Amino acid sequence: MTSIKNILALLTLLTAALFVGCKDEAPTDLPKASLGSVTINKYVSVGNSLAAGYQSSGLYKSAQLYSYPNLIAGQLKLAGATNIGTFEQPYWPDPGNPDPKTGKAARYVIISLADPNNPVIGPKGETVTAAAPENAATLLRPFDNLGLPGAPLAGFMDTVGTYQGGFGAAIIRGASGFPKSQFRSVVALQPQLVSFWLGNNDVLGYATTGGASPSIPAPTPVPTFTYLYTQAIDTLKKSVSGVKIVVATIPNVTTIPFFTTIGPKIGAKLAPLGVSLYYQKKGESGVATGTTKFTNPASDPLICLTGSPYAALIGTATGKFYKDNGYPLAPGIDTTKPFGVHPQNPWPNALTLDSAEIAIAAQAVNNFNNAIKTVATSQGIALVDINAVFNDIKANGKVISGVKYTADYITGGLFSLDGVHPSNRGAGVVANEFIKAINAKYGTNVTAVDVSSLPALNIPLGKYMTGTNVLPNIAPKSWDTFLKLWQN
Amino acid sequence: MKTLSLRFSTLALCAVFFSTASFGGGFQLNEHGSRAMAQGGAWAARAYDASAIYFNPAGLGFQKQGSVYLGTTLIMPSVTFYGPTNLGQSTKNEMASQTFTPINVYVTYPITEQLHVGIGVNNPYGLGTEWPDNWTGRYITQKVDLKSFYYTPTIAYKVNDQLSVGVGMNYVTGDVTIKRMVSPGDAQVALDLSGTGTGFNAGALYKLSEELSIGASYRTSVKIDAEGTAKFTPTSALFPEGDAAASLELPATAFVGVAYKAMPNLEFEADYQYVGWSSYKELKIDFKKNNSSSTSPKNYENTFILRFGGEYTMDALQIRLGYLFDNNPVLDKYTEPLLPDADRNGFNVGLGYKINENLSVDVSYLFLKFAERSVTGTETQFDGVYQSNANLIGFNIGYNF
Question: In angstroms, rounded to a whole number, what is the distance separating the alpha carbons of residues B177 and B370?
């Protein structure tokens, strides 16, 4: 009897002691950041507006901080590349770069919410605080992030400024005695890792102007693109000893909200009336032959986000588009006819990518991507198939830490207010794809960016939007600097 | 009768003032009486006290007196999440520490020697987790609180000295609040829903001999149709603010147990408990505005708990020990910080003390050790490693009359 009593007492004590001493150790199978056998003392980004951290039609510090190259640099440092130090970017203090015409900040914000069905988006007349990068005077070497908004592939070698986009002088600083091109800057910096994502602007300029701009009548010819790409990577490898390079494909224009937002909304607006949109097809400037009810995604035209202020005018007798842009009326155009629903006052060509133009853009993207993949394979460098990633997001969305992001304008969460450039979290998604490709090719284990920790798109929710068929209204003139990105 | 009505009002007060929520396999709570809890919850083949109303209503048939048995369990869970590993993160995130206090209150009365009635109020399902407001999983959950009160009027009938049977009816109230962030625009949604449902339970207890008894009980699932509101901060026409509704099926459960008296003052019991978790397929919240809805798949699986326990009596004192193994119902794919489950081993100890002929107290302690759980390929794209445990302390007072 006593022995049972003792055993029970002992067991009780033992159990209690066990619980008190029970303390969990950190799990052993957690991801560990490391560079493996790779040394990275310097990382340089070659690219365009996407690399620059350009958002909502402007270049401003609070967005540049979340550029995908800066996010990659942060993760590289976590993996041990501490010698990178500060990843130098040309910061335009908020509210960012000026619109040359107004002198006010070019970036878009949500301006007016007086009418929740018609949110007005665009530059808000913010006073610019600095016309040049805040760190340009103190940094006595090229920037690590060489992203040049507006630069096509040809901008990589360009030492004159013709292909450096509107920010070339401020970022490359050739006139101040710094190396005169992206390429020469890279050579001067002698990095161990280069991300090279150019080529988007070789098709975007054509597409965002509806395929109707006389100065950009077609995407860059494929032989030119292929030649420049091959030369760029080959020269880079030869000029920077042992450099590791990661390149990326070009997303199809049909995946970005700049092209996918307005059309379906116009379709929804016209559907109850049973009427079609009359739009100018490729090459047309007068009476239109295109009609659509936006019920056949395979052949419907894409309507540019630049058309947003005119979409609300459909059905009214207006020539606002021509007046806004100072275009003379082409023969056959009659602005007393209801806009957009009459062949004589049709939806303008400059705001439309019709099926022929979509095919031209798609063919260019396809050919460019084939060239990029070929070069990546033959040079043995890392490749990010960002086109495949964006196609997947367009089709299925992307779940990250419980949030389903989509390619939708504003509500999708991945694109900034200009509908072309990624938001902070969109840049996080891009950075993670680059990191994945770097790890796969070079045996590193750089960890990904925690996308949810990046600031979300700033939407003044209290007053924003009702319903699903809201037409955002971005004033016509607001697009000038944005479209200038591609006017070389 | 006067004393009885007094007791009922005490009971109602308890129900109002004790908040409840917590932590069982899935969101089941299994601590409904300290004497049973100290023995790993292996109690269906004995059910000597008024907690028989929960474990096996047939147990009342063999009880000689009326009784009041009331208590609470302090539940102190702790969860650490490392991740999200699918994004290469190994950040340590700790759940806010909270103490939950589910109650158990039972009153029984023998109308005749054969026929017994009783009523119980307890919280068989509940959960609560709270994470820091700004943590990386804030779009999945910040805070969730689920409470259910089961009101169980019960009748038991002793057929003969070997066999007793019992049935109960369950009137159930349920409350759930959920807080999390929503995208786009970083708003917080707070859902507050409540509803009621009904169910039944039944059991039988059979004494094979002086030493050996077997017991079995079954409780139906209960469907709660809950209604309430969804509030968004800041508010926006983008969101389905306003009336919201959800239906939640609390799973069916069953016990089968066998008890053995090794010596007049030493007995053991082993139970198998079945939990029909497959009723929890999804959490679908319907919003009146735009007729929209939000669905998150759960796809729980039916599961079981093994329970072992014993009790040694020394005059007025009883010493109890127990062990349980709780097989978790959540697949890796659906494991999430809202309710981070894992297989659990539970180690129980407890004491009972008879103050006098009528009055007794029971205390119990349970340490629940969750297996470390590393999940990948989750539905929410929020992979990582969960480490969890819980300390539970139970108190009960029993009064026989």
Answer: 25
Distance of CA A463 to the CA centre of its chain: 26
- A93: cis peptide before it, omega within 30°? no
- Please indicate whether, in this complex, the C-beta atoms of A401 and B80 are within 8 angstroms of each other: no
B 258-287 residues with CB < 8 A to A = 266
The residue length of chain B stands at 401
Pairing of strands A193-197, A43-47: parallel
Rounded Cα gap, residues A119 and A465, in angstroms: 7
User: How many alpha carbons fall within 13 Å on the CB side of residue A223?
Assistant: 0
pLDDT for A472 equals 58
Reduced to 3 states (helix: H, G, I; strand: E, B; else coil), residue A95 is coil
3-state SS class at A362:
helix
| Contact predicate B266/A3, CB 8 Å | no
Cβ-in-10-Å burial (0-12, 13-18, 19+) of A339 comes to: buried
Residue segments in chain B with a per-residue pLDDT below the cut of 70: 1-25, 236-238
pLDDT digit string, tens, across residues B235-273? 766 677 889 999 989 999 999 999 999 999 999 999 999
pLDDT digits (tens, 9 = 90+) for B124-151: 998 789 999 999 999 999 999 999 999 9
- Is residue A443 within 8 A of residue A38, CB to CB? The reply is yes
Q: Can you tell me the distance from the alpha carbon of B7 to that of B68, in angstroms, rounded to the nearest whole number?
A: 8
- From A414's Cα to the closest Cα of chain B, the distance in A is 10
Q: How far apart are CA A354 and CA A293, in angstroms?
A: 13
- Say if CB A209 and CB A348 are below 8 A apart: no
Q: Is B313 helix (H, G, I), strand (E, B) or coil?
A: strand
Nearest CA in chain A to B364: A12
Q: Are A128 and A31 in contact (CB under 8 A)?
A: no
Query: Could you list the mean pLDDT of each consecutive 10-residue stretch along chain A, which spans 488 residues?
Result: 54 54 74 95 98 96 98 98 97 93 89 62 89 92 97 96 93 96 98 98 92 90 98 98 98 92 89 94 94 92 92 93 92 95 96 95 97 98 98 95 89 91 97 98 96 84 41 63 59
Q: What is the pLDDT of residue A15?
A: 56
Q: Which residues 37-96 of A are in CB contact (within 8 Å) with B?
A: 75
Model pLDDT, residue A122: 85
pLDDT of residue B26: 78
pLDDT attached to residue A13: 56
- Asked if B138 and A22 come within 8 Å (Cβ–Cβ), the reply is no
Long-range contacts of A326-331 (CB under 8 A, 24+ apart): A330/A285, A330/A286, A331/A286
Range list of H helices, A113-181: 168-172
State the DSSP H helix or E strand holding residue B107, giving kind and residue range, or none if neither. Answer: strand B103-110
Q: How far is A302 from chain B (nearest CA, A)?
A: 25
* Sheet strands (E) in B220-316: 222-233, 242-250, 253-263, 266-275, 282-287, 293-297, 303-314
ipTM value, please give it. 0.85
- Helix count (H) and strand count (E) of chain A? 16, 13
Helix A222-239 and helix A182-189: axis angle, to 10°? 20
Q: Measured between beta carbons, which residues in chain B are less than 8 angstroms from residue A399?
A: 379-381
